[in-house]
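Example for tutorial group B:
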C-alpha cells in the first residue's frame, strides 16, 4: 500500500469529516436538552479528554504503525490471537455503516424536498416523514448514498477522500455559522442559549447524565470505531499522532456546539419552554425530520434556512459515510482484494444489511441501540489492545520519551491504562443493572426485544464469533512499511 494523504490539512479535514456526522446535528442537541443542557456539557467535555481523544490517539498509532485496517492492525501490534478484537471493532462499525447509509439517504431526500416540495414537507411534517421513512423512498435514498460514497472511495485517498473532505468540511462549518447566527437573531432565542450554557449542578449527580455523555462523545467523535485507525494507515510518517486526534476531537465538539446553537434557540424562540423541551425529547428522527421542518415553516425566510440546514446535515452524513466505507475497503484490502472490487463489495454489504433498517423503524432503532452501546465495548478493546502491546512503548512512540511532554504522557497514559477500562466496567455494569432491575425486569433477556440486554448480548456474541473466524484467515502479521 503506497497511498498517502498529501498534506496535514488534507488528513485533518478527512479526520474531522470522519468525526462530524449526523450525531452532531440531530443527536447532540436532543441528548443535551434531555439531560439538562448546560449540566450535560460538563461530563461531555470531560469524556472528550479522558475517553475520546486518548482512544483516537491509540487508533492513530495502531493505524500508522501497521498500515492496515483494524483486523490487521491488532494482529500486527498485539498478536494473531488478539486480532479478533480489531475484527469486532470493524464488525461494529460496518453494522453502523449499514444503517447509517439509510440516514444519509434521508438527509439527501430532505435536502431535495426542501427545494422541490417545501410546502408539503412543512405543511404536514409527520405525514411527510411517514411517507419518506416507511416506503421504498427510504431504500432508494440509501442506494443513492451508497453509490455516491462508492464513486468517491474507488478513486482513492488523495483524489477521492482528501479532495472531497477539503471541500465539505469548510463548507459545513460556514453553513453552521450562518444557521447559528440566524437562529440567535430570533426573538426568545436567548432562552435556548441560557438552557445550553447555564448548568443545573444537581443533575451531575444523576448517573444517566454521565452515561449519555460518554455515549454521545464516543458516537460523535468516532472514538472506538476504528475509523481514525484506517485514515492513519494513509498518514505520512511526520503527521503527529497526538495533535491530529486532539484537533479532530475539538473540531467535532465545536461543530456540536454550533449545531446546538441552531436547534435550541430556534426551538425555544418558536415554542413555549415546556413544549420546546417536549419536542426536543422526540428522538433523533422526530426532532430532525418532523420538528425542525415544522419550525422552519414558521420562520421568515424559512425555506432558505431549511435548505441550508439539510445541506449541512447532508454534508455531515456523507463525510462520515465515506470513512465507514473506507474501513470496509481497507479491511478487504488487507485480504488482498483490490480497491475497486472492495468498494463495491462494501457498498453491497451496506445495502443488504441496511435494507431492513430502511424498511422498518423498529429494526433501525434496534441496530442504533445495539451498536451505539457497542462502542463502549470497542473503546475498551482498543485500550486493552494498547495495554497488551505495551503501554510504555505506546507512549514513547506517540507522546515521546519520558521527560518530553510529561503532562501529555500522564494524561494519555492514565486514560488508556486506567480511566477507560474503569469507565467501561462502571457504565456498562450500571446499564446492565438498571436494564435488568428497572427498565425491563421481566423480558430483559429476550433477544427479540427492540431494546433489551438480550438483543445486545446476542448480537455482540455473533460479532465476536465472526471476528474470531475472520482473524484466522488473516494473512501474515508483519507490518508493511513502504
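The residue assignment follows.
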Amino acid at each position: 500500500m503506497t497511498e498517502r494523504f498529501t498534506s496535514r490539512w488534507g488528513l485533518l479535514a478527512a479526520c474531522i469529516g470522519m468525526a462530524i456526522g449526523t450525531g452532531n446535528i440531530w443527536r447532540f442537541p436532543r441528548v443535551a436538552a434531555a439531560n439538562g443542557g448546560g449540566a450535560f456539557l460538563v461530563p461531555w467535555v470531560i469524556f472528550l479528554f479522558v475517553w475520546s481523544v486518548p482512544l483516537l490517539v491509540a487508533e492513530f498509532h495502531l493505524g500508522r504503525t501497521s498500515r492496515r485496517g483494524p483486523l490487521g492492525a491488532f494482529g500486527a501490534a498485539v498478536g494473531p490471537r488478539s486480532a479478533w478484537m480489531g475484527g469486532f471493532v470493524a464488525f461494529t462499525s460496518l453494522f453502523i455503516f449499514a444503517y447509517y447509509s439509510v440516514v444519509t439517504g434521508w438527509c439527501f431526500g430532505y435536502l431535495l424536498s426542501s427545494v422541490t416540495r417545501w410546502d408539503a414537507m412543512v405543511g404536514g411534517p409527520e405525514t411527510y416523514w411517514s411517507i419518506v421513512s416507511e416506503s421504498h423512498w427510504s431504500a432508494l435514498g440509501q442506494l443513492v448514498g451508497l453509490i455516491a460514497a462508492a464513486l468517491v472511495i474507488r478513486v482513492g485517498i488523495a483524489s477521492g477522500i482528501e479532495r472531497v473532505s477539503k471541500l465539505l468540511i469548510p463548507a459545513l462549518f460556514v453553513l453552521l455559522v450562518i444557521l447559528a447566527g440566524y437562529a440567535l437573531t430570533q426573538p426568545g432565542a436567548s432562552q435556548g442559549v441560557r438552557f445550553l450554557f447555564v448548568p443545573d449542578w444537581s443533575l451531575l449527580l444523576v448517573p444517566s447524565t454521565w452515561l449519555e455523555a460518554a455515549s454521545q462523545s464516543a458516537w460523535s467523535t468516532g472514538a472506538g470505531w476504528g475509523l481514525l485507525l484506517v485514515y492513519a494507515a494513509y498518514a505520512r510518517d511526520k503527521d503527529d499522532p497526538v495533535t491530529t486526534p486532539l484537533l479532530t476531537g475539538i473540531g467535532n465538539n465545536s461543530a456540536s456546539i454550533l449545531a446546538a446553537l441552531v436547534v435550541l434557540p430556534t426551538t425555544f424562540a418558536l415554542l413555549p419552554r415546556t413544549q420546546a423541551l417536549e419536542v426536543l425529547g422526540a428522538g433523533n428522527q422526530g426532532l430532525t425530520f418532523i420538528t425542525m421542518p415544522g419550525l422552519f415553516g414558521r420562520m421568515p425566510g424559512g425555506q432558505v434556512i431549511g435548505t441550508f440546514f439539510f445541506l449541512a446535515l447532508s454534508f455531515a452524513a456523507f463525510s462520515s459515510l465515506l470513512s465507514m466505507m473506507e474501513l470496509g475497503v481497507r479491511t478487504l484490502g488487507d485480504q488482498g482484494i483490490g480497491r475497486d472490487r472492495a468498494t463495491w463489495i462494501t457498498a453491497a454489504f451496506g445495502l443488504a444489511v441496511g435494507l431492513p433498517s430502511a424498511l422498518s423503524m423498529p429494526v433501525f432503532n434496534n441496530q442504533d441501540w445495539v451498536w451505539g452501546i457497542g462502542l463502549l465495548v470497542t473503546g475498551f478493546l482498543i485500550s486493552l489492545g494498547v495495554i497488551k502491546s505495551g503501554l510504555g512503548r505506546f507512549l514513547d512512540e506517540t507522546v515521546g520519551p519520558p521527560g518530553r511532554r510529561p503532562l501529555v504522557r500522564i494524561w494519555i497514559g492514565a486514560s488508556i491504562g486506567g480511566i477507560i477500562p474503569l469507565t467501561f466496567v462502571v457504565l456498562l455494569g450500571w446499564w446492565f443493572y438498571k436494564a435488568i432491575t428497572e427498565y425491563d425486569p421481566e423480558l430483559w433477556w429476550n433477544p427479540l426485544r427492540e431494546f433489551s440486554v438480550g438483543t445486545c448480548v446476542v448480537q455482540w456474541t455473533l460479532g465476536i464469533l465472526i471476528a474470531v473466524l475472520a482473524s484466522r484467515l488473516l494473512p501474515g502479521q508483519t507490518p508493511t512499511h513502504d
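The longest helix spans residues 361-398. Compare this with the pattern of hydrophobic and polar residues in the output above.
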